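Project standup — Tuesday

K.O.: blocked on the structure for the chain from last sprint. Re-posting the sequence here as requested.
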Amino acid sequence: MSWPALPIDAALPALADALASGTAAVLVAQPGAGKTTRVPLALLDAPWRNDGRIIVLEPRRLAARAAARQVAKLLGEDVGQTVGYRVRMESKISARTRIEVVTEGVYTRMLLDDPELSGIAAVLFDEFHERSLDADLGLALTLDARALRPDLRLLVMSATIDGARVSALLDNAPVIDSPGRTFPVETFYLEPDPLQRIEDQVTSATLKALREHEGSALVFLPGQGEITRTAERLKDKLPANTDLAPLYGQLTPAEQDAAIRPAPEGRRKVVLATSIAETSLTIEGVRIVIDAGYRRVPLYEPATGLTTLATRRVSRAGADQRRGRAGRTSPGVAIRLWNEGQNSALDAFDTPEILAADLSNLLLDLAAWGVTDPKALAFLDPPPAPAWAEAKALLTRLDAIDASGHLTSAGKALARLPLHPRLAHMVVAGAEDGDARTAAELAVLIGERGLGGDDIDLARRLERFRTDR
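H.V.: unblocked you, prediction finished:
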């Protein structure tokens, strides 16, 4: 079967050689190279696979579903045959599935349930530059699991990552570079107005860009609130041939999938997105990117033990990823809502989540793995001591670990649930009180924003959730 040529094709022979002569490699492939779709297919015929499955990790559910659909399309099949996916609360796989696209959290559960990764021939970490907590944990556990599975192939893929540093973590695995394929993108800078709301600036920039340039637009905003307010401002001002589509994590899978579908012939669309659209996705027809320059990130406060969402400036790497969305399928333009001189003040990369997150989930997973000291595993960045101590104190209060850091019987019950330890403790306590269903439903509503609506009254959300079901 033949497919259109992509830049990654030139790197595939070297990648095949690396994984035939060794068991690990690092692939640095620029945006547009085609790594997400082509690499798993190229490995299907590798002799070392022996009919084992290839697991491809994606940072988000939307990216996992989209990648699985695209790879299956190249094979002329439906998702769930040779290519399938598994994400939280949804899966589409079969006995025939040999390429399985999963989210990083799902992969952690797979590892904890089966440390030997039975029936799996290779694990591919895609978009590793995002450095989510689950990706860092998954890589550390996979490296440890290779003591049981020395034949397991491991490939770390990214567009913007320090390949040499990851290579050193993988026992100096070979680093393979692949150029990307992006069309020219002209970049414009707009001086921000400190007296004007970000939604008004974005609305003005979007309408002007639609008048002056062709194609659909992808607009990056910090979060759901800004997207909703910008949509309100735009809905009555867009040209008649232009559709409006929000894209953020709390939408249903159907709504997210609709947002990334290309506009019908003769129409344009404006996609208002969070950083969920920064990597892994190609929205056909997008030739305009408008970047407000912010993103919302989880920030853990050890003093309070709470994780809050904080608004932060986008990093230079993140801004470049966003800019590249305009040049995936044709020449485009990127409009940045800051002045060019501010570029040098942006952080080079986003802070790895392990350095800023609540580590109680990680500590519980490591205890379930049999590790009480994170130094026993190979992390690219070790967990910070203060956050580790705070997590240990919380799990001790929940009676999940004993004084030596090992799981208690209660901790084993918490570890079996794919929830934050606080929520898992609530579910277990609810079961002991004879109302496991209500506790489980509340845990799902708290952990999955958007289910049951967005009412601040949890009782009303629970009532709607039960009605919708």
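K.O.: great, moving the ticket to review. The longest helix spans residues 198-212. The chain has three domains: 7-178, 185-353, 358-468.
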